[in-house]
Amino acid sequence: MRSIVLANQKGGVGKTTTAIHLAHGFALAGHRTALFDLDPQGNATVAVQSIAADAVVDEALEGLTHITTNLWLLPSPGDGSTLARGATIDVERLKDLVARVADRLDWLVIDCPPRLDDWGWAGVQIAERVVVPVQAEFFAMHGLSQMLASLSAAAVEFPGKAALRGVLPTMVDLREPVTMEILDDLRKNLGDQLLRSVILRDSCLVEAASFGQSVFHHSPHSKGALCYAELVKELEHG
Fold it and tell me: How is residue 194 annotated by DSSP?
């Protein structure tokens, strides 16, 4: 089983949207995939609630909810209710779950909160690779160096886990004259750490989430669907 966690200490960068579409994209490509929603806000859990209700029913996996063909979900602990103040995550129990399902899955995709708290660190320490989404703006590098330093420390603390797979530019608007300058700046500073794929700004992504679907079903020919399909391919073969 290969595993990827989406992590960034800054909110509003497309982290949850990317987690949803990676998980569903891998599933559509024929890979048995689980999406772990470790964000107490539960946005990923809500955003996949109406994906392909008529899909093939796959076997049950202990502790996971079947969503559609080849896709299972570990719902957010805050889904449908307010998480109790001071609630913590049981990392060892989470590791046990991963160990139980590892030989029955091809991919594990993990969504974390927009901060490296206990929930965020839980995702980092159970995933082999980390993808860091960043919004394509001049402040994209602000705080990113601190995030990358934290991931480097995590990779040392958790051997075999938390290796950086790449930084992903999101919400890219090609109508803005400065966009290419921003992408060039990211490439100059990050080099091979910047993924080849970019996610273009597309209202279809927002619309799909409001229907509890991924853009692959809601708007399969949209810019967003094509961008995330390219990202799935890049990560599949890298």
Answer: B
Structural tokens at position 162: 């938390």
Q: Indicate the pTM of the whole model.
A: 0.93
Report the amino acid identity of residue 12: G
Q: What's residue 230's pLDDT?
A: 98
Q: What's the order of all strands across the beta sheet hosting 33-37?
A: 65-68, 71-74, 33-37, 107-111, 2-6, 129-135, 163-170
Q: How distant, in Å, are the alpha carbons of 38, 81, 185 from that of 182?
A: 31, 40, 5
Contact status, residue 186 vs residue 134, Cβ threshold 8 Å: yes
Determine contact, residues 39/89, Cβ cutoff 8 Å: no
**Spatial CB neighbours of 200, under 8 Å, sequence gap ≥ 6:** 172, 173, 174, 223, 224, 227
